[in-house]
Design brief:
single chain; 190 residues; mainly alpha; two-stranded antiparallel sheet; 11% strand; elongated; binds zinc ion; Conserved protein containing a Zn-ribbon-like motif, possibly RNA-binding; Znf_CGNR; ABATE; ABATE_dom_sf
Length: 190
């Protein structure tokens, strides 16, 4: 399965690796190797890390903590204390090194450092009173994203995954509705 990086922040993207959380949750990080692939696929993180079982478990607990805090922000509720504890503790760990060159920024570090970076990045967005966090508008999609659009008018987590699906469904519904009306018209006039 392809990973989606549409949330505008790596911590929110990590939280988004569980799809449709309220209906039938699908966890796209089923094993440590999935997490390794996810880190490689994320532009903001090192190209390559290895995940042992213990660090993988830490990543999943960080992910769930970030999700609960982000949901708290969306619902305008106080942060869950145990989730704060996890995120704050992870953020206090060693951080990746970054280097600038003509090729841009290059980040390196192990998975622990990556988790620390993700926790810090999550804290920055969760602490920002101007950050507009939203849950995707498609029913069933529980992804939380950072809306940076002008006037904060974004509705979907991503156009490919959700926006187009909703629009296509609405189009089909309209066609069905107009076809039904035509049938009725035909029935009436014949
Ligand atoms: Zn969505």
């Amino acid at each position: 399965m392809d990973f989606a990086f549409v949330s505008g922040n790596p911590a929110l993207d990590l939280a988004g690796t569980v799809l449709s959380r309220r209906d039938e949750p699908i966890d796209v990080l089923a094993a440590p190797t999935d997490l390794e692939r996810w880190v490689t696929a994320c532009d903001e993180l090192p190209d390559r890390v290895t995940a042992d079982v213990a660090t993988f478990e830490s990543a999943l607990s960080l992910r769930e903590a970030i999700y609960r805090l982000a949901l708290g922000r969306v619902l305008d509720r106080p942060f869950d204390p145990s989730s704060l504890e996890i995120v704050n503790h992870t953020a206090g760990g060693p951080v990746p090194t970054i280097r600038l060159s003509d090729a841009g920024l290059r980040m390196s570090g192990d998975l622990r450092a990556v988790l620390s970076h993700i926790a810090r990045s999550g804290i920055a967005v969760l602490a920002d009173p101007d950050a507009c966090l939203k849950e995707c508008g498609r029913v069933g999609c529980t992804r939380i994203f950072l809306d940076r659009s002008r006037g904060a008018r974004r509705t979907w987590c991503g156009m490919d995954g959700c926006g187009n699906r909703v629009k296509a469904a609405a189009y089909r519904a309209r066609r069905r509705a107009s076809a039904t009306t035509e049938d009725r018209e035909t029935a009436r006039t014949t």
